[in-house]
Design a protein that fits this description.
Layout lengths: L1 H29 L8 H7 L7 E5 L7 E5 L4 E5 L4 E10 L2 E9 L2 E8 L2 E10 L8 H11 L7 E6 L3 E2 L9 E12 L2 E14 L2 E11 L13 E3 L2 E12 L1
Antiparallel strand pairs: 1-2, 3-6, 3-14, 4-5, 4-13, 4-14, 6-7, 7-8, 7-9, 8-10, 10-11, 11-12, 12-14
């Protein structure tokens, strides 16, 4: 009887180890979450089109010409190369991982006057945000974000954003941005670092905003399979072209 009990205990421990190992393999190797968005992603998103240029002729002895990027003042509209989404730390079967959902269906625009973004914002259809799990997506658009009642999430600038100078082609400048963020029908004023880059005739911005779920009336995403914390991250890389 003792031998049988020992064998059962050993088998149970082996089963637990196998399950844990399978979860570890799935979350860390096979289905590893996408990396956090960064300023490198901002630069990568701006590499495609050819810059629109004007030519300035110098009067120096060499008679050389300089090519400069056209001014950035005016209205700029978000393109489909934009990316916006959420990132939430998860614990699945004792293994730390992250839930990540993203969309490229971003509507938005900014108006620039010299070095200042005088107005602007963006919005997304909550239902367009997808992760690597249909089960997670169902929870996200259902009880968590209630997309049927609150179909859009949005951010609107409430204070002009002065970058101090017009970035040279490929240069990045980071300043603080302040505006109203609306999630699940609740609006809060947020301030966060915003990095801008002008490259190849387009304007791009990168940022991430910490989200405390309770502040927006968002239920904790935990369920019988996954445990999460009380907060997450809204992250984005937005690409704008002339409107």
């Amino acid at each position: 009887m003792k031998k049988l009990a020992v064998r059962l205990v050993v088998l149970a421990l082996v089963a637990v180890a196998v399950v844990y190992g399978a979860i570890l393999l799935w979350t860390k190797v096979i289905n590893k979450p996408e990396d956090e968005l960064s300023t490198d992603d901002l630069s990568a998103a701006l590499v495609e089109p050819t810059v629109t240029t004007v030519t300035a002729v110098t009067t120096g002895a060499t008679g050389a010409t300089d090519t400069v990027a056209e001014g950035v003042s005016g209205v700029w509209v978000a393109t489909s190369e934009s990316t916006l989404g959420y990132r939430v730390k998860e614990v699945l079967g004792g293994v730390d991982t992250e839930g990540v959902g993203r969309t490229s269906a971003v509507d938005g625009s900014i108006t620039i006057d010299g070095t200042v973004v005088v107005e602007g914002g963006f919005s997304v259809e909550v239902g367009s945000i997808k992760s690597d799990s249909s089960r997670r997506d169902g929870q996200f658009t259902g009880r968590i974000m209630d997309a049927a009642t609150f179909p859009t999430a949005s951010f609107v600038i409430t204070q002009p954003i002065d970058f101090g100078s017009i970035p040279t082609d490929g240069q990045q400048i980071t300043v603080d941005a302040t505006g109203d963020l609306t999630l699940r029908g609740s609006t809060k004023t947020v301030t966060f670092p915003l990095t801008a880059e002008y490259s190849n005739g387009r304007v791009g911005v990168f940022g991430n905003i910490p989200i405390v779920f309770a502040e927006y009336g968002i239920p904790n995403p935990s369920n019988q399979f996954v445990t999460t914390g009380d907060d997450g991250l809204l992250e984005f890389v937005l690409v704008f072209e002339r409107g």
